Amino acid sequence: MSFFGIFGKPKQQTLDSGLEKTKESLLGKLTRAIAGKHTIDDDVLDSLEETLITSDVGTDTTLEIIKRIQARVAKDKYLGTSELKKLLCEEISAMLSKSDKDAKAETQKGHKPYVILVVGVNGVGKTTTIAKLAYMYKKAGLKVMLGAADTFRAAAIEQLSYWGEKVGVPVVKQQMGSDPASVAFDTLHSALASDIDVVLIDTAGRLHNKVSLMRELGKIRNVVAKVVPTAPDEVLLVLDGSTGQNAYQQAAQFVAATEVNSIAVTKLDGTAKGGVVIGISHQFKIPVKYIGLGEKMEDLQPFDAESYVKTLLG
After folding, report:
1. For 31, 246, 247, 272, which has the most beta carbons within 10 A of its beta carbon?
2. Angle of helix 59-76 versus helix 84-105 axis, rounded to 10
3. What pLDDT is stored for residue 101 in this prediction?
4. In whole angstroms, what is the distance from residue 284 CA to residue 196 CA?
5. Which pLDDT score, from 0 to 100, does residue 144 have?
6. Is the pLDDT of residue 28 over 50?
């Protein structure tokens, strides 16, 4: 079955409210960029470039978008500024469609447990994202288990235990300072014994020593693979969208440290920096699978490139 598809399409009402600040900022800049202009000329493209960069879309991604718009204008000849939003929607959606389709095409491959290793720095919403995913999977009728492998902070173990109790899913944990790989090992053995469908394993959010982080994540990967040969099925990187350019830096470091194959971008409801989702998806060629649009459990939404771009551009 399609494992990703169990969550369906994002809810438009949640997208509208969660992306309101980004939409207002982007549309305001776009309106100013084309004010008094009737054709898409070099001045409009220069203004558009500035608009996208200041909306945290990222330089490389912005240049690719401008290149695509230039090609369309050269091909279609008589495109005016009134059609610019439509052009942007089409070209950005097309640019992001491959990674978006890759995420949706992922399957469970007929085995369980499906193991998700969750990585990201402290403070990005990693623990609450795990809780929201557990809620979504449980609501879909699947048995879920959490593993508290961030053993470097007592608060991390306590937070995951709190959310596990609130969502109603078991949490495997040890004392603070325990070996994270040992927690992951115990979690998977418990999952096999309990016929669990999905396992979410929290990891330490430290970036001050990349060598140590790489070694730790590598050890966890090796241990879980010994228990479940297919594991981990996903290494999900959680990023805080409100940090803008800092989210790119975090993504680069984690992609270098471990084999990240999916991304969740959180806290988009409180920021005008929602363009970061477009840039991260394009730059790292890793599917953005989830976006966080609020505090409620239902506010973690599956990412759909076309819906996202259309919402931003009205």
Report:
1. 247
2. 120
3. 54
4. 32
5. 97
6. yes
CA atoms within 13 A on the CB side of 52: 25
Per-residue DSSP letter, 233: S
How far apart are alpha carbons 107 and 103 in whole angstroms?
9
Name every residue whose Cβ is closer than 8 Å to that of residue 131 and which is 6 or more positions away in sequence.
Answer: 160, 163, 164, 166, 167, 297
Q: How far apart are the first and last CA of the chain?
A: 34
pLDDT in tens, 80-115: 777 888 889 999 998 887 655 555 545 445 678 999
Q: For residue 98, with 0-12 CB atoms within 10 Å meaning exposed, 13-18 middle and 19 or more buried, which class applies?
A: middle
Nearest to 234 by CA among 179, 289, 294, 191: 289
Contact (Cβ atoms closer than 8 angstroms) between residue 244 and residue 269:
no
Structure tokens at 186: 């115990």
Which tokens in the block code for residue 291?
A: 């976006």
Phi and psi dihedrals of 297, rounded to 5? -55, -40
Please give the C-alpha separations between residue 229 and each of 44, 115, 203, 226, 280, in angstroms, as whole numbers: 54, 11, 20, 6, 30
CA angle at 260 for the pair 259 and 266, rounded to the nearest 5°? 160
Pick from 243, 296, 230, 246: nearest CA to 271 = 243
226's CB contacts (< 8 A; 6+ apart) are 185
Inter-residue contact 196 to 117 (CB < 8 Å): no
191 has a pLDDT exceeding 80: yes
